[in-house]
Structures are given as structure tokens and as C-alpha cells.
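Researcher: Structure for this, please.
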Amino acid sequence: MPEVPMTSPAPLSKRIFGKARRIVPFALLLVAGAGAASWAFSAKPQDKIEANAEGTARPVQVQTVRYARLSQPRLLVGTVRARVESDLGFRVAGKIATRKVQAGDRVKAGTVLASLDETDFRLSRESAEAELSAARSSAKQAELERDRIAELRRKGWSTEQAAERQKSAYDEAVGRVTRAERQVEIASNAQTYAEIRSDADGVVIGVLAEAGQVVAAGQPIFRIARDGDREAQVAVPEQDLQLARTAKATAALWSDAGASLKAELRELSPNADAATRTFQARYTISGLVPDAPLGMTVTLTLASGGETKVARLPLAAILNEGGGTEVYVVDKASGQLQRKAVKVLSYDARQVVISEGVAEGDLIVTLGIHTLRSGLKVRPLPEAKVG
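Model: Predicted structure, C-alpha cell format:
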């Protein structure tokens, strides 16, 4: 069998240093990478922004400001209401005996609408009248006794003290008469208050209680719409509040859509409805026939003046940190950001409508505005084409 030549092993020192030459460069790479990662994680966002400002400009999404006339009208649908609507009730408590009108009935001023059971009121008045009669009799007797004692005093058959006592008794009797007279007036008034009378011509638009019901003093029983001026009542969304205050308004009845009537804001509620989050507004309609049917549908058109120009911006472009509404504008010469205050007319879920604060052609940053600051150098990205 032939012999296989045996190779002598390499020296131990050679093997160790050979492996070291291969491991050291890899270890150096690991150390350098760990240092870079540590710097990246420990660097503050502001340091990154500063580094960006000193180095390359930061890319931002922008939109060019374009102004246009606010010509699109806003339509609000409401109903015809009476300018004055009154809730009427009894001025005393009691049980309703009769109700003489129904919802929709026309009434004249002074018409009896309902009455209470008068039994207790009649008894109270009779009792007060009896008290008055007794008080008058006592006063008459006290007057006669006063005159008698006065005569005896002149003749010297009575004392001054007796005359004074009788005069005081007479004055007290006169006071009881006065008090009894007032009680009779109160009882008579209470009997009168047992009826509800209409205080003006109008239409019954609500009946809130029925015969046989026991009601409290002041509880509303009827709702009366007075004859006279008619108005349009509409619900204004919160984004249209400014428009409602400043816009020119016209009204058209559903039954006569071809007729356009001038409308003027008379009242705007300061509080939003808890359910709909809208604000109730009332418009006086010029040219509307007095006593027009209540509840008719009316369409209100709000159109701003023809000279008002507005620009529409994305909602994401608006910044408000407590000092007012602002936007970031890119300075075309230096490429740096500037914060400018703007006036907002209205807004919705996607955009805002502004009337002043920025100029035509300005570049507005539309995304990521909360990570920016004034003076930051940026590079506007091309605007996305619409359509």
C-alpha cells in the first residue's frame, strides 16, 4: 500500500493571527454602525429640523391661493310663523270646567277660551262680602260710641282717657273695613281669573290641557298666534352663521315659488339646539300677505354681496394654537416659511373658506403643518392636478 505524504501543521501563532485579520475589520464595521444608530436615536426632532434647515430644503405639499367671487347661494328651508306667539293660562289654580275652542280656531280679543270650576271662588267672595258687612257694622257702632263719649267729655261727665280709647277703637274698626274691602276685591279678581280670555285677535295653534284637568296657576293651556306680521323660521348650520348675519336674503313660498320676497334677519339664537346643533333664526319677509297661513314651507336664499371674494383651502392647512387662525406661506424668494393670520368665513368637514390674510398666488402648505415652524427652508412639491 503506497504511503500518503503527511503535511506538517501550520504553526499555532500563524493560525491565530490569520483569524484575527479576518475578524477585526468586521468588528470595526459593527462598532461604526452602532455609533451611527445611537446618534440617530438620541438626536432630537428639533436637531433634525435644524440639520435639515442648514442642509437640503424640506419638501412640502402646497396649494396656490385662488380667489373667486362667493356667488353660490345657500338655501335654507323653514316655515311661516307668526311674529308674536303667546302662551295663555289661568292666573289661579283649579279644575278646568269647560274648554270652548279647538286648535285652528280663530279668536277675537276678549273671547273666553276656557273656564275653571267657580264654586270655591264664589264661596270665597261671599265670605269676604260677609266679613265686609260685619266690619262696616262694627265701624258704625264705634263711630256712634265715639260721638257719645265726645259729647259727655264736653259736658265734663267723661274723662279724656275714655275719649281717646273710643277714638282708637273707631280707627281700628275703620281699618278692618278697609281690609275687608280689599279681601272682597281679591276674591272678585280670583273669580275673574277663573276664565282665560284672548288678549288679541289670532289663531289657536296649540291646546295643552283638557276639561277636567287640575292645573296650576300660570300653567300654559293655549298657544295663540297673533294676527299681523308673519316671519320665516329656519335652522342655520353653525358653518353658515357668518353668512346668515351678512348675506342678502330672499324668500319664496313653496306654494308660489316664482315670487321672490325680500327677507331681513330679525333674530338669531345665541345658543345651538342640543339635538340638531343648529341655530334658530327668524327673518322678516317684506311683501308677505298679512295673516298668511301658518306652517307653510318657505325657502330662504342667502347670497353674499357680489364684491366679496373668497379662497378655499383644505382643512389640513389651517393652524390654530389659541392666537387665531393661521396658515404657513412659502416665501418664493427665500423658500422659507411664514405664518400669516387669515379670516375664516365658513368651513365644513373638508375645507375652509377665507376672505383675507393671504394674497392671490401665494403658496400655502397643506400637509404636516404641525411639524413646521416659521423660517424653515422648504421645497414645494408639484401640485396635484385635479380632473
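Researcher: Any notable elements?
Model: The chain is about 30% helix and 35% strand. The longest strand covers residues 256-268.
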